[in-house]
Structures are given as C-alpha cells and as structure tokens.
Write a structure and sequence with these properties.
single chain, alpha/beta, Oxidized Rhodanese, domain 1, five-stranded parallel beta sheet, about 30% helix
C-alpha cells in the first residue's frame, strides 16, 4: 500500500468519518495481504464481562456488553479475521450497524439494522435469509462474518444467531467490530451494497 493510501486509511480509521474514507481508489482485500498483526486483543474484543451466551435474540438495549460467544457460531478476533480475509476471498463480510453511512471493513456489505427484530419468525429474518442467499450464491458452507461497532453491540450477535438459525454452517462473529479493526490500524472503507 502506498504512503498516501496509508495516510488516508489512518485518517478514516481515526475519525470514523465516511468522508475521510472516500478515496478515488477503494480499499481492496488484496491490499490486506502484506499486513501482519500481533495475536493480541484489539479494543475490547476479548473482554469477558461474565455475560452468558443466549440462544435468543436481544430485543432493545442493543448497545450493551455482549457474551464472548454466539451459540452455533465462532467468535473471531482481529488478527484471525485479517488472516482469513487474505486467505479466502469468498468470505462474506456483513456490517449490521444501524444509523447513517460509516466506514467499515473493506468490501463489506452493509445490511443496516439486520440485527433488529423480535424473534426467529420475524419478517426481517426472511429478508436476511434472502439477502444472505444472494451474497453466498446459496452456499450455506461459505464463511459469513457479521460485525457491528464493538463488543458492546448486540446487533451482530443477533444477526449471527439468525444466520445459524437459517442453516449457515460457517458463521463467524467479529465481536470487536469496527472499533477493534480501527484500533489495529487496519484500512477502512465505505460498505457496499445493502439490502
């Protein structure tokens, strides 16, 4: 990555400003290949607040401390996610943070508020199922990574639970989310696609 690209990525990461993330050249996952990270926790991604995993969706109060695991999914840390993204270009990255446009991980699909809903029979689950089928080409073995703002965001936890309930076999929950990615100094970019 060129020096200017790193400066732009650092500004984007430091400010979480979409304007700072918009460049003439989008951040491509292939640009992650030359980056190595120490195997350590970034931000609060490994914090254990003693909250038990649950197999039901959290409804309301989404900005709160989360468990360390999602039943049926695998929690992935920043360094492991970086290695996965450089090794497997088929990985689907899904940003479920609500609100306005924001920078996220390179080549993420932003499914705004995909972690909302009231239960596993909610109409939002059907919508998520349709979109995941499109993103994975119907391959329920394909790795799908859900993330949100931080380890204090239940939206990605809920979306991971939904994907497991929909029969996806390689669901990964990036618990640290945008804050951990940013703390590691990794490049960020606007999310693509959407619903």
């Amino acid at each position: 990555m060129t020096g200017l690209t790193w400066v732009t990525a650092a500004l984007c990461a430091a400010t979480l400003s979409l304007a700072a993330c918009q460049t003439s050249r989008p951040v491509d996952r292939s640009q992650l290949a030359g980056i190595t990270l120490a195997d350590r926790a970034y931000a609060d991604e490994a914090a254990d607040w003693g909250i038990s995993p649950r197999g039901t969706l959290l409804v309301g109060g989404y900005h709160a401390r989360t468990p360390t695991a999602v039943p049926g999914a695998r929690t992935i840390a920043t360094a492991d996610l970086l290695r996965l993204l450089t090794a497997d270009p088929s990985v689907v990255l899904v940003d479920v943070l609500g609100g306005s446009a924001h920078p996220g991980l390179p080549q993420s699909v932003w499914l705004v508020d995909a972690g909302l809903g009231k239960g596993f029979d909610d109409p939002l689950q059907a919508k998520l199922g349709e979109r995941l089928a499109q993103l994975t080409g119907g391959d329920r073995q394909r790795p799908v990574v859900f993330y949100c703002l931080s380890a204090e965001c239940w939206l990605s936890y809920n979306a991971s639970l939904w994907a497991v309930a929909l029969g996806y076999r390689s669901v990964l929950w990036y618990r640290g989310g945008i804050e951990a990615w940013r703390a590691a100094g990794l490049p960020m970019a606007p999310a693509i696609g959407g619903w």
